[in-house]
Amino acid sequence: MKQLTILGSTGSIGKQTLEIVKSHPDQFQVKYLTANQNIQLLAEQATLFNIQGVCVSDRNLHSDLENLLRKRNIEILSGRDGLIELSGRNDIDLLVNSLVGASGMAPTIAAIKAGVDVALSNKESLVMAGDHIVSIMQKTGANLYPIDSEHSAIWQCLRGEIMDQVKKIILTGSGGPFRSRSLDTFSSIKKEDALNHPNWEMGNKITIDSATMMNKGLEVIEAHWLFGMSDDKIEIVIHPQSIIHSMVEFKDGSIKAQLGLPNMKIPIQYAMTYPNHMEGSLPTLDLNTIGTLTFEPPDLEKFRCIQLAFDVLQCGGSAPAVLNVANDEAVFAFLDDQIQFTDIPIIIEMALNTHKNILNPNLDEINEIINWTKKYVREVIKKRDKS
Q1: Exposed, middle or buried by CB within 10 Å (0-12, 13-18, 19+), for 133?
Q2: Is pLDDT at 348 greater than 60 in this prediction?
Q3: For the whole prediction, is pTM greater than 0.90?
Q4: Disulfide-capable partner of 147 in 98, 103, 121, 243 (CB 3.0 to 4.6 Å)?
Q5: Which domains does the chain have, with CATH numbers?
């Protein structure tokens, strides 16, 4: 039986992971759970799954969580230190990291330092510290299993293949809710519009990333570190039906694709059961019902975040960390009605242009960069709000 830690168990990926565990009680046992603030749901999950330990990131909620679990013999941690300490425990087989944004980097590093395999939904870990994470994995033997549907698809397509024979990887994307919307109307986009994704049910932050298509940009950088592919061997193709989750092209011109319904449980379960494809409870894909699959290039004028990501991948150094954190801050500001949708790429580019790139930053420098970027972007947002 595989022992699990789930970081972010009250979010979309975390809840779906627990649904898979519930469907396969003979395969998985969850030992630890974490949440940011939703302690009511965390307590319910801890009770239902007989958890040994939990952590709430908001330290102010520690005593409230204790009250909710006072009749249970469950270890309770809190705060950032508690999250990192729990993430570094090696009495489990797999850590599922479904945290959102830059906060997921340190827990990923803590787990792989402990030699624990990580099922990774937090693409920001590799965006900000890919070089360090790969280096640590080589030392400890820990593995990263991608949960993103696109990277899971590539991972499956590459199984049994010789990497020297790969010509390129092709990341597909739905195009989000604004694929066919005219650019001259983008300034009137509201939060509710951006949160209305046509195919996927995701958390708010990731849904906005899909609307700006920054998610594709971040996936390009993540793919670089997961599969060792340079930026000129990574292509983005818009595929509105979200049936082909990504493809791999080989030197002889052949292309392998992974298809499936747009449901995150499929890549989550594969990361949890690798190298096996375990029976699931989802309906199967019926291509006769789907009918037509279409493809088109991404519009880089409408979706500037894609080009920003390719640019920072070429720059390397600390630029990807700035891109990632600036995007986090801008997206949260948009969700908080502080800025417009069109401000998001503008603010990210301002941060990148102001930042002095550091080649080969160490982890201390990356943390300093995270703090600098947060401070810079928040000041920019405050000025724009006043104007």
Answers
A1: buried
A2: yes
A3: yes
A4: 121
A5: 2-146 (3.40.50.720), 148-315 (no CATH), 316-387 (1.10.1740.10)
